[in-house]
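User: Can you recover a sequence for this backbone? Please restate the input before giving your answer.

Assistant: Of course. Working from this structure:
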């Protein structure tokens, strides 16, 4: 890491510093050597620029030492830097700023190598590969930051969470009906429906905050905002349930589903809301996903790949496919890194198999919501929840 910190400023000023040393150029400053030197104005004062080179530790000897330095070690250091940034407790802005400097440094390195004679073509090709690799790391970094900022189910967010059951009020509970009493049976059916409606309203209230979070997560994915607004809307509306299920999967077991506030719905309550077969399929998918033991960063990348899936009605399917391919490549790199606590070298193939399973589950979920589209007058849902799932709303809910 120490050499990395020295190499970054060297990348930013390497050509200028080398020329200054080799030609023994003397500079003067018109502002008493107090100029602010940044990338945008670095050519304004050569004296202060050279002074900054010395201040960050560059030297005549370093030019020759660096020429013999193995570039792969530098990029290994950048990988370590990326990993430490994910695990760091430093403010998000500091992590992002340092990582952007690293990317800028390697970009400058590529430009500098592209200007050398043809004898260095092999090194330039290596530089191109290195920059492409770092671009993948940039995708990992951006998606990881977005996931940590906009997912309420990360390890940090759920650490120390106190679980509490979702208890149906006594007024909505029912007594077993006698088969010989049709009126009692009818009353029980009505009570079961009222329980279902009550549970759905509680469920919707707790899901709704995730709608805005998934929207913000999507907006921070590389390339997403370059898609047309219609395509963005389709991806978010159709893919929301699948992405949300990815996020809450870590808080889902065979017997319950726990929300951000610690409230958990039992399997029986979920079966009352949906249907037993659907809940069984849901639990199976979340169990399979949990078996991969994805880290928060890997789950963020997987969620991005789920969102960037081909959907009916998309205008630019190829553009969406390219974005998904970039994310899947980033997920492959992340899960196959030499050191780490991820899912392992063969994880990408197995994890990718969950994407069509989630898509099929999302389609079943949309069909199950038809009951609410037909009976929307019986329940009061948060407007944002109704909007994301295309459930009709009262005019007063829109105000």
């Amino acid at each position: 890491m120490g050499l990395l910190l020295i190499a970054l400023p060297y990348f930013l000023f390497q050509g200028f510093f080398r020329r200054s040393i080799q030609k023994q150029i003397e500079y003067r400053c018109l502002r008493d050597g107090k100029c602010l030197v940044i990338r945008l104005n670095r050519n304004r004062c050569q004296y202060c620029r050279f002074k900054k080179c010395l201040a960050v530790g560059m030297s005549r000897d370093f030019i020759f030492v660096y020429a013999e330095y193995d570039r792969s070690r530098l990029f290994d250091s950048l990988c370590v830097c990326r990993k430490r940034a994910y695990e760091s407790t430093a403010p998000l802005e500091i992590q992002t700023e340092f990582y952007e400097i690293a990317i800028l440094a390697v970009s400058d390195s590529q430009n500098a190598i592209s200007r050398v004679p043809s004898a260095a073509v092999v090194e330039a090709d290596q530089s191109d590969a290195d920059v492409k690799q770092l671009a993948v790391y940039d995708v990992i970094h951006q998606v990881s930051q977005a996931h940590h900022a906009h997912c309420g189910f990360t390890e940090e967010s759920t650490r120390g969470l106190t679980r509490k059951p979702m208890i149906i009020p006594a007024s909505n509970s029912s007594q077993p009906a006698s088969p010989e009493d049709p009126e009692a049976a009818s009353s029980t059916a009505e009570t079961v429906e009222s329980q279902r409606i009550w549970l759905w309203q509680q469920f919707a209230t707790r899901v709704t905050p995730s709608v805005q979070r998934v929207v913000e997560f999507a907006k921070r994915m590389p390339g997403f905002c370059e898609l047309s607004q219609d395509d963005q809307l389709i991806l978010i509306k159709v893919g929301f349930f699948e992405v949300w299920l990815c996020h809450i999967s870590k808080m889902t077991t065979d017997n319950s589903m726990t929300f951000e506030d610690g409230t958990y719905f039992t399997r029986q309550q979920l079966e009352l809301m949906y249907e037993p077969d659907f809940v069984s399929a849901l639990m199976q998918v979340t169990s399979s996903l949990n078996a991969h033991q994805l880290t928060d960063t890997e789950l963020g990348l997987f969620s991005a790949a789920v969102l960037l899936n081909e959907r009916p009605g998309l205008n630019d399917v190829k553009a969406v496919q390219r974005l998904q391919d970039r994310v899947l490549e980033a997920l492959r790199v992340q899960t196959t890194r030499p050191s780490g606590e991820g899912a392992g070298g063969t994880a990408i193939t197995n994890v990718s198999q969950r994407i069509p399973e989630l898509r099929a589950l999302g389609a079943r979920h949309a069909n199950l919501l038809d009951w609410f589209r037909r009976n929307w007058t019986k329940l009061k849902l948060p407007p944002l929840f109704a909007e994301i799932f295309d459930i009709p709303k009262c005019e007063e809910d829109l105000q």
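That completes the design. The chain has two domains: 13-58, 133-169+186-337+348-397.
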